[in-house]
Every structure is written in structure tokens, then in C-alpha cells.
Design goal:
The chain has helices at residues 11-14, 29-32, 35-40, 75-91, 106-119, 123-133, 141-149; strands at residues 18-21, 24-28, 45-48, 62-64, 96-100. The two termini are 18 Å apart. The protein has one domain (16-149): Protein-Tyrosine Phosphatase, Chain A. The chain has 150 residues and is an alpha/beta fold. Strand 1 (18-21) and strand 2 (24-28) form a beta hairpin. Helix 4 crosses helix 5 and helix 5 (106-119) packs across helix 6 (123-133).
């Protein structure tokens, strides 16, 4: 996927939370560490795909599933934990933030995987929805291949 199709994002763009569905958002570590912003955005749950997560999400129901930034994680294995967590949060009226360092590769991969497996979307439809909300997404080619295989 071609990054920055709409031009270069500003540093602030990375730290904005992007709503993909009313209960599912993509963001960065910078967004996740801002407790006031999480409250303003009505975030009730968090999925962190990094080794460590900020203290601001420790008080929320959260799931940590470390993923490689180089497409080396098994997406099906990641989704085995992420999909039920996201689905349960949405059904309970919650709002989930899936985040990585910049919200460009790993977290959009998880959200696209959720759209594919939980909602039956095609890869193209999932990526179109995500990039319409967060234009600077650039999913690693190895993760794109795994999304196609779901």
C-alpha cells in the first residue's frame, strides 16, 4: 500500500484517533498516552500491539499483543485474541482504541483483520475504509499478504 497518498502528515496527525467504526478506532502511542484525549474521544478499551503500553490505558480494560513492525507476526494468532476482545467491547457499548507507535502499520493491520474476520469484509473494502479515515496508513506487504489469506 502506498503511504502518504494524500501528502505528508503532520506530526499531530499521527496522534489523532481515527474512527473506523463507531466502536473501533486506530491511533498512536501518543494518542494512547493522553488520558484527557482518551476521555474526550470516549475510549473505554485499548488494544496495544507494542511491548509496553502507557499508564493511561492501564486503568481501561486492555489487551496487549506485541507485533513485529516488519510483518513477521502471525496475524491469525493475533486476531484470535483481538477479535473477541473488540467484539465484546463493541457489544457492551464500548469504544476500542487499537494502537501502535504511529498508527500506520500494526494497528491498521489488526483493525483490517477484524473487519475481515468478524464482519466478513473484503481486504479491499477494509483497507478503503481505514485509509479513508487515516490516509497515511502504510501496512507492511507481509501483513497485506496475510490479510488476503484470512
Amino acid at each position: 500500500m502506498s503511504p502518504l497518498a494524500a501528502g505528508s502528515p503532520s506530526p499531530d496527525d499521527f496522534d489523532r484517533i481515527s474512527e473506523v467504526l463507531p466502536y473501533l478506532c486506530i491511533g498512536s502511542y501518543g494518542a494512547a498516552e493522553n488520558a484527557a484525549y482518551l476521555t474526550e474521544q470516549k475510549i473505554t478499551h485499548a488494544v496495544c500491539v507494542l511491548e509496553e503500553y502507557p499508564g493511561s490505558v492501564a486503568s481501561l480494560p486492555n489487551l496487549r499483543i506485541p507485533m513485529s513492525d516488519h510483518g513477521e507476526s502471525d496475524l491469525q494468532q493475533v486476531l484470535r485474541d483481538a477479535v473477541p476482545f473488540i467484539r465484546a467491547a463493541g457489544e457492551a457499548g464500548g469504544r476500542v482504541l487499537v494502537f501502535c507507535i504511529l498508527g500506520v502499520n500494526r494497528s491498521p493491520t489488526v483493525v483490517a483483520g477484524y473487519l475481515r474476520t468478524a464482519l466478513g469484509w473484503s481486504t479491499a473494502d477494509a483497507l478503503s475504509r481505514i485509509t479513508s479515515r487515516r490516509p497515511f496508513v502504510s501496512i507492511h506487504e507481509k501483513y497485506l499478504a496475510q490479510l488476503e489469506e484470512l
